[in-house]
Amino acid sequence: MVPQDARIFVAGHRGLVGSAIVRRLESAGYTNLQVATREQLDLRDQAAVNYWFRDHRPEYVYLVAGTVGGILANSTRPAEFLYDNLMIHGTVVEAARQIGTTKLLYLGSSCIYPREAPQPMTEEALLTSPLEPTNEPYAIAKIAGIKLCSAYRRQYGCNFISAMPTNLYGPGDNFDLDSSHVLPALMRKFHEAKLSGQSDVTIWGTGSPRREFLHVDDLADACVFLMDHYDGEQHVNVGTGVDVTIKELAEMVGQVVHPNSRLVFDTTKPDGSPRKLLDVNKLAGIGWTASTGLADGIRSTYEWFLAQHSVRS
Ligand code: GFB
């Protein structure tokens, strides 16, 4: 178990995942959290990261920083998704090794699995066939991160573990329509349609792809759990084990945000992977399962969105 006063670095604490991990650690009573803003520390800069680690000597590291985004951002900014993530993972893992960090948890993504992987996807599906083209650069960076942690375990004996979450959502998400994932994008689209008195809401693609959505507070809980209870080399899937079509998701968000709306499908936009459902049996076997249902999670995230934007309707 991680001692309550251990020095714990959350890399990426301003992001969706990092902010949830900080909330979770604080509520669990951890007293010595370490964070650094992008302005204070460029995680792509090995010399700067080495200096920061020598100065702060974190004993535990949550490596959850990265350049992330939805299907459009992935296809329009592939160089950033590949370069930033490769560098961030490389610098932090190496600096943690150099100062003798006790344990590091690296966060990947379910897009590491092949486009045609059998569903639900087990951890063994990694690198068995080609990736989904719309997010291949990001997936390759994430796969490199997993392999980096494995390699550091084997060569240096570092206790570096990897968790692979499914599609995430929740408070702190990105609601920018050009770079966001589907759930926050739909929430904003329905919200703006309601405010402007429109009934039509445009959904990208055919609505038929299936996705699994995990509330970020559940993910944070799983990460803290794995830090305490998992020391294996193989990455661990983190999801709910349940998926919905994008059309069903849109209907659920519409029900909460703008019940009298009508869905319009823009099939000039890409669908991406036909399905991405994680097999979560490994994590269940270690002792953790998700607890937030999608309908409840959508409702509470919309409450957060309204509070943030101070727009009540
Ligand atoms: O969430 P999303 O952008 O990412 O899109 P992926 C999921 C599905 O929702 C796709 C559809 O089929 C989109 O076409 N969709 C419908 C929309 N309307 C919208 C909309 O307004 N905005 C967005 N963004 N999508 C990402 C990867 O894939 O998943 C990342 O690109 C990462 O690398 C992330 O792995 C978890 O699930 O397709």
TrEMBL record:
InterPro entries referenced in this protein's UniProt entry, alphabetically: Epimerase_deHydtase, GDP_fucose/colitose_synth, NAD(P)-bd_dom_sf
One Pfam family matching this protein: Epimerase
Domain NAD-dependent epimerase/dehydratase: 8-239
Metal-binding recorded as keyword: no
UniProt pathway: Nucleotide-sugar biosynthesis; GDP-L-fucose biosynthesis via de novo pathway; GDP-L-fucose from GDP-alpha-D-mannose: step 2/2
Protein EC: 1.1.1.271
Catalyses which reaction(s): GDP-beta-L-fucose + NADP(+) = GDP-4-dehydro-alpha-D-rhamnose + NADPH + H(+)
Keywords: Isomerase, Multifunctional enzyme, NADP, Oxidoreductase
One of the record's GO molecular function terms: GDP-L-fucose synthase activity
Keyword presence, Oxidoreductase: yes
Family: Belongs to the NAD(P)-dependent epimerase/dehydratase family. Fucose synthase subfamily.
Protein name per Swiss-Prot or TrEMBL: GDP-L-fucose synthase
Organism: freshwater metagenome
